[in-house]
What we know:
By secondary structure, the chain is α+β, with helices and mostly antiparallel strands. Among the domains are: 1-30 and 233-377, Multidrug efflux transporter AcrB transmembrane fold, CATH 1.20.1640.10; 379-412 and 593-765, Multidrug efflux transporter AcrB transmembrane domain (Multidrug efflux transporter AcrB transmembrane fold); 445-548 and 551-590, no CATH class. The chain has helices at 3-25, 43-55, 77-91, 129-141, 169-185, 198-232, 235-259, 270-277, 280-294, 299-326, 334-354, 357-364, 379-391, 393-411, 429-440, 462-479, 487-498, 512-525, 553-570, 583-592, 594-617, 622-644, 650-653, 655-677, 684-711, 719-750, 757-764; strands at 61-67, 96-100, 106-111, 114-119, 156-163, 193-197, 445-453, 483-485, 542-548, 576-581. Strands 2-5-1-6 form a 4-stranded antiparallel β-sheet, with helices on both faces. It has a 4-stranded antiparallel β-sheet with strand order 8-9-7-10, with helices on both faces. The longest helix is centred in the N-terminal third of the chain and has 35 residues, at 198-232.
Amino acid sequence: MSVRSLSYLTLLLLAVVGAVCVTGLMRLRFNYNFNDFYPTGDPDLAFYEKYSARFGNDNDYVLIGLETPADRTLFDAGFARRVDQFTQFAQRQPNVVHVLSPTTAANPVVEGLGVFNIPYLHLDRLTDPASRAQDSSLIFRTPGLVGNLFARDARAVTVLLQTTPDLKKPPGDTLMTALRTELTRLGFPEEHVHLGGKLVAQSVFVDRLQVEMAVFVSLSVLLVMGLLWLTFRSWWGVVLPLTVVAGATVGGLALVGWSGAGIDLMTALLPVMMCVVGIADSVHLLTRYVTETGEGTATVPALRISMRESMFGSGLSALTTSLGFFTLTASHIRPIHNFGLYTGLSVLLAYGLTYTLLPALLVLLPRPQQRYGAGRSWDAFFNRLLFHVLKRRRWVLSIAALLLVGSIAAASQVRIESRLLDDLAQDDPVQLDFRFFEERFAGVRPFELNLQPQGGRSVYDLDVLRQTEAIENYLTRQYGLHFVASPVSVVKSVRKALNGGALEEYRLPASEAELKRLQKQLRRVSKRPEFRALATPDGQEGRLTGRMPDPGSTVVAGLNGGLKRFLSTNTDPQVLQTRLTGSALLIDKNNQNLTRDMLLGISVDVIMVTLIVLALFRSLRMVPVVLIPNLLPIVVVGGVMGVCGVPMKVSTSIIFTIAFGIAVDDTIHFISKLRLMLGKEPTVKRAVSHTYRLAGKAVIVTSLILVGGFSTLLFSSFDGTFYVGLLIGLTLLFGVVAELTLLPILILAFYKKPRVGKARQARAA
Length: 765
């Protein structure tokens, strides 16, 4: 079979595969599932899933904060009536289970055989100053109202909507649109409306993902096109590499679609990653091809030479790059796991297409017209650069040593820290809304504590209630909860209701006999919507729930440590046992694995690179030669994070593993070409010089593409995506400098074995 026939057959087979991939693309969906960020396989997750099945998820709610006009308070009759109209509208909406509002909150009073719910806010009497003052006094003295439904400054209220469990984006967006439309109709100015909760974040994240994915891919393609044109000065030098990348990206996204994983905050980066990472192999192959054809070699022989000299190195670099992504699959966080898996597979697809699709196209397309020696135009530049690098090797080594020491010191200041919604910029409207609830109300960070009475007791036994109350007091005074509810709240409310609703009666019964007298009303009141999620129907298990401002995972870890010490010394495990749980706790637990996952990923990469070096050179001395220029940029960027105060969190922890896997590519290409040159040149220095000229152009071009491609992520509104672009870009920038300066110095210093071509020929003769 002729080369042209084989090329046509290759294109036909790839076209069939592409058609199959279209079915995977049709299955793609954008996804933001808050639960995906829980650590899979964790015992605390298994416990929380059972806990939420009994009591509901702690994030199935929407907070609607409404501010009053500047010259009025929440006791203004017109404002309160509009809040009530909105409350009634919300109660009628699908997927709304319960609404807790300032206008429906009531003080239960038991008189005779009936229970009367007396509203805290009398809408029909707000025009009367005396009645308004009476309502205000009662509201601000009643526990659980101020900071929960009413702002401390009396200039804002919160309406809380309990939604159906795990409400997905389409119905969630419908609900949010209906709520916003009604608020506008009622005359609430946009700047006076604040929304918080999972549904808000879910809607915003997915919508922005769709926009940003399109923007980043467009910017990356334009940037890569410009750099490819400057490099090859021909249409085929632009179109052919982009065709390879497009094919690999389509294949990767098809795999995502077939798996049902969906496009989330992490996998949205796959097309950008492929646009900048997947093009490197094509650049190396085409650069060598241009050199050969520029010297007059025919197309097919030029391809054979180019493939023979670059295919092995590209295969090794594709292996190390994909491995850098594959190590992310060890993460317990599903979006990171999926991102690592599908991006790693896409890198391998790009390598496969580079050496199947690209050669087939080069054979079938007209031979590029070039002047003789076009591929050697950079030789003089690299000869001068290498001369100056070797002449000032002491300066280069001294600067590298100083950078290393300073970066290690600065990197030691990097702290592990995360907050809810920390991927949104501080001035983001969603972030500002959440901050509104933290500053004016109880906050948005949920707190959950499971209550398990022991010895046949129920959560309504007096000794259990007293220990639960002690925990509540600690949480509000020492831990920082601004709102708390538990079975204690139910019992206190019943006691107050039986004593005419007087605030001073809001306390636990003084004796078992008094508690027994409350039992009948307790069973009735505990079925109220605001209380029924605090204990199981049989009272054998309870829930202590609350909200607080989010101080960050580091502070919370200290608070949890203090709480555990308090529980161990102030509760009797024979009476009551407790267990921290909740969505916020699970998100925080991710931080415990960040350092481990990062070190695991880099360690696997280092081991793989070490094995490659040993296989190529059979010399341990070459291992530090390859590792030092690639680990130094990682340490330097860690120092940059320490100096700039960038915390280690879920989105930034993946940077080092990815960056090392990408940065080592050029080194792999360099040393694989060096291995070939050692068999052709009489000295190691001549082999390094020849390799420097051959690989230098491709190293600079691919590095510019990588740095430029990742720089497009700087335009993201997500902090995590921004830092991925910034820090990986810096790592690769430092990496190419180390590649062109440190690497040749280290090779000449460490590699002493005289493997030279002429000596071999002499021995063979």
